[in-house]
């Protein structure tokens, strides 16, 4: 099409936008214009000026102003959709708010898809296959990124979120408490009760979760790490229905039984590129001033040239500005960095628990440093991050064991130690 015709159509469309009061129509028209026009910058400026929920404003020369995303995403646009997977701990939220600010398009939780119905949000937040998650989005995902956070910090924030929503058992209960998310830290005594019941098992869920995505949905037992059967795997995902003893590997499968590899059908059929992540994002690096902008860039690069998304992605020289607006200036949704009260460091773990974390991290590091994985950038990045986490937890273990980190009586006692000293109720192991 000749430049004069293109300009004429663009001007007529601008006139319609200025007169229209229908926000959905405006959004659809702007998207179409961006695809149609050679001047994506000028069309983005129209979007910046007139959308009711504006795209983050690009001011030129690397400058920007954060704006909230569009929550009523147009249904007639085809997007490459990104699954943001991570163990329950608040780090996925930290990631999707970056995506929202970079594009002006909103994210959605797996439970919202399951209980409120399908929508066209291009960013999907998921705890699945952890028992706090659900595959609620059907076949709407095209690619996966996995968020990895220090296992110790993960356990603290996992409990904090449960406390925020009142340890909800249903979607309705959790939904009713969303306004409490990330406001403050829970009392230490509440954490200690949960910690002694859950942490020793959740350490294994943490490693199992990483294995699930790195191996593209391969079904494994989280306690023996052996390949398991679909029957056993689906039992493992229901820890409130079956006790640990009832779903023990030897009891259901048999320690000497050969098991052919099985993969989660969702990974085989419902994610265009499969469940293996195309990128690993570090929650710790994302919030640090010296590493944060580079980590934010990794998130943005996942969106470059993706269908539909590329028309909404803010200019590259503004990516660092978006990171600054969210992390430094704390614009947008609250995340775990906004909590008041105790620091994560003040929530303690016993030697026994730290040892369990160290063992699990060592297992993962050895596995993903193996010859099968060394050619994969995602595996190399995972190992580098886990080694950082491992060093920190080993230091803390030495502090506790050597008496340099003084803990209360409760902090010294893991479930095995407590049982030996006092008997009574303990976490099932």
Explain what the structure shows:
- This protein is α/β, with parallel strands linked by helices.
- Helices cover 48% and strands 7% of the residues.
- The chain has 18 helices and seven strands.
- Strands 4-5-3-6-7 form a five-stranded parallel β-sheet, sandwiched between helices. Strands 1-2 form a two-stranded antiparallel ribbon.
- β4, α5 and β5 (123-126) form a beta-alpha-beta unit.
- The longest helix has 27 residues, at 188-214.
- It is globular, with a radius of gyration of 24 Å.
- The model is unreliable at 1-54 and 424-429 (pLDDT under 50).
Average pLDDT: 85
Strand order, sheet with most strands: 4-5-3-6-7
How many DSSP-defined strands? 7
Into which percent range does the helicity of residues fall? 40-55%
Poorly predicted runs of 5 or more residues? 1-54, 424-429
**Proportion in β-strands:** 5-15%
Shape: globular
List the helices and strands and how they pair.
Elements: H1 3-19, H2 23-36, H3 40-50, E1 57-60, E2 63-65, E3 82-86, H4 91-103, E4 107-109, H5 110-116, E5 123-126, E6 143-148, H6 151-164, H7 171-176, H8 188-214, H9 230-236, H10 249-252, H11 265-269, E7 279-282, H12 283-287, H13 292-301, H14 319-328, H15 351-368, H16 377-401, H17 409-412, H18 415-422
Parallel strand pairs: 3-5, 3-6, 4-5, 6-7
Antiparallel strand pairs: 1-2
């Amino acid at each position: 099409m000749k430049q004069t015709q293109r300009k004429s159509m663009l001007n007529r469309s601008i006139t319609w936008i200025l007169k229209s009061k229908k926000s959905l129509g405006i959004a659809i028209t702007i998207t179409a214009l961006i695809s149609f026009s050679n001047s994506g910058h000028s069309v983005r400026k129209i979007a910046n000026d007139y959308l009711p929920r504006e795209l983050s404003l690009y001011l030129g020369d690397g400058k920007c102003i954060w704006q909230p995303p569009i929550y009523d995403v147009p249904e007639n646009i085809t997007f490459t959709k990104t699954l943001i997977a991570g163990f329950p701990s608040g780090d996925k939220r930290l990631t999707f708010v970056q995506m929202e600010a970079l594009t002006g398009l909103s994210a959605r939780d797996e439970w919202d898809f399951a209980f409120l119905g399908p929508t066209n949000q291009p960013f999907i937040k998921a705890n699945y296959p952890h028992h706090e998650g659900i595959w609620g989005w059907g076949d709407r995902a095209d690619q996966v990124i996995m968020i990895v956070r220090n296992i110790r910090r993960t356990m603290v924030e996992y409990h904090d979120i449960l406390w925020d929503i009142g340890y909800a058992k249903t979607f309705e209960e959790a939904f009713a408490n969303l306004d409490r998310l990330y406001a403050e830290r829970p009392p230490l005594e509440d954490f200690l009760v949960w910690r002694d019941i859950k942490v020793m098992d959740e350490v294994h869920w943490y490693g199992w979760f990483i294995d699930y995505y790195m191996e593209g949905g391969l079904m494994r037992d989280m306690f023996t790490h052996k390949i398991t059967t679909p029957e056993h795997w689906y039992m493992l995902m229901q820890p409130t229905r079956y006790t640990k003893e009832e779903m023990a590997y030897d009891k259901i499968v048999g320690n000497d039984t050969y098991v052919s590899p099985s993969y989660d059908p969702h990974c085989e059929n419902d994610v265009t590129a499969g469940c293996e992540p195309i990128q690993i994002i570090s929650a710790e690096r994302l919030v640090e001033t010296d590493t944060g902008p580079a980590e934010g860039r990794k998130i943005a690069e996942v969106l470059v040239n993706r269908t539909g998304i590329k028309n909404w992605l803010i200019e590259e020289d503004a990516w660092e500005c978006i990171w600054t607006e969210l992390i430094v200036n704390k614009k947008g949704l609250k995340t775990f960095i906004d909590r008041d009260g105790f620091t994560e460091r003040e929530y303690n773990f016993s030697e026994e628990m730290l040892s369990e974390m160290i063992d699990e991290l060592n297992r993962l590091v050895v596995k993903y440093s193996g010859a099968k994985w060394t050619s994969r950038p995602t595996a190399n990045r995972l190992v580098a991050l886990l080694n950082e986490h491992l060093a920190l937890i080993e230091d803390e273990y030495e502090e506790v064991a050597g008496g340099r980190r003084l803990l209360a009586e409760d902090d010294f006692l893991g479930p095995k130690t407590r049982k030996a000293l006092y008997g009574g109720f303990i976490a099932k192991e």
